[in-house]
């Protein structure tokens, strides 16, 4: 399988995150990607497709914010990573804020997604990694590819960051795939709901979004991912949320996966983007499903039975020492 990785993605390394009322070490560490990369002999470098494919998914103002936020933070006399503490709820006002704190709050939904001097560089190459994995799949030169993206993307919306995500790599690839495929599906199998991806395509009829994730009644990101969210307007019925209670193990998980895959198949997808998170693993330090490493081969095989050109994009997964094995199992099963 074609695999893509760029080590410029490793530069972004926030120090800490706010979690359950306390500062904790940043879980989304560069070591995650390093450990996964170690499982492969060779990985191709991404091409540079520039800003255009990113800017069709993300707002220009948000991209400008991401690029300048760290400098503005420094200019405001701050030390350490840029992080928000005030967030506008429900009805956000037009983004004409002056202070960096107001800008950060207006472009994020949590305090777990700091911006460092290297965030833009890493997020940019993460998006290029996804786009580069897509190319051979889209052109029919390969049936599948794996994009080792980091930072992850599925919590990032058109104009906001969150959940360790800045640019939505899967959404950027799915949108680019529309150049050749009329119907693109995104299957999100990270432990957490892919709220950013869902938001980006919520009212569209050309990109199907299906997600299996921890019930938002008990788990982050809390405000999205309920079963009754099914899309809006032209996109009604083109979003499928399959939340599971904590503790879900392989039998239930694979039964739920079968539902997601048959919905994607019935809808008539011509190309599949998989947002793959390894945080469904029993040993994940921040998550509560019960999949074992050996379960991932069967899960990969089941996804492959859809028999569509497929781009697999890396999302979360925080049991750093196990990540290489989990990704290896999933891809070999696939
Ligand atoms: C891409 C991705 O997987 N992002 C996940 C972001 C989760 N951030 C907050 C999770 C809060 C979990 N708190 C549980 C603490 C258990 N000790
Ligand atoms: Zn996750």
Could you give a short description of this structure?
This protein has ten helices and nine strands. It has 334 residues and is of the alpha/beta class. Strand 8, helix 9 and strand 9 (310-314) form a beta-alpha-beta unit.
Folded structure, characterized:
The protein has helices at 30-38, 52-55, 60-75, 100-106, 119-138, 169-177, 195-201, 250-267, 295-304, 323-333, and strands at 2-4, 16-19, 22-25, 144-147, 184-188, 207-214, 239-244, 271-276, 310-314. It is an alpha/beta fold. A seven-stranded parallel beta sheet has the order 1-4-9-8-5-6-7, with helices on both faces. Strands 2-3 form a two-stranded antiparallel ribbon. Helix 3 (60-75) packs antiparallel against helix 4 and helix 5 (119-138) runs parallel beside helix 6. The radius of gyration is 18 Å and the shape is globular. The model has no long low-confidence stretch (mean pLDDT 96). N-[3-({4-[(3-aminopropyl)amino]butyl}amino)propyl]acetamide is lined by residues 19-20, 112, 152, 155, 163-165, 190, 192, 220, 277, 279, 286, 315-316. N-[3-({4-[(3-aminopropyl)amino]butyl}amino)propyl]acetamide binds at residues 19-20, 112, 152, 155, 163-165, 190, 192, 220, 277, 279, 286, 315-316.
Number of helices: 10
Across the major sheet, the strand order is 1-4-9-8-5-6-7
Low-confidence stretches: none
Could you spell the SSE succession in H and E letters?
EEEHHHHHEHEHEEHEHEH
Rg over C-alpha atoms, rounded to the nearest angstrom: 18 Å
Total DSSP E strands? 9
Mean pLDDT across every amino acid position:
96
* Sheet with the most strands, sense and barrel status: 7 strands, parallel
> Given the helix and strand composition, which structural class is it?
alpha/beta
Q: How widely separated are the two ends?
A: 10 Å
Task: Tell me the strand percentage band.
Answer: 5-15%
- Overall shape: globular
Tell me the helix content. 25-40%
> What are the bound molecules?
N-[3-({4-[(3-aminopropyl)amino]butyl}amino)propyl]acetamide, zinc ion
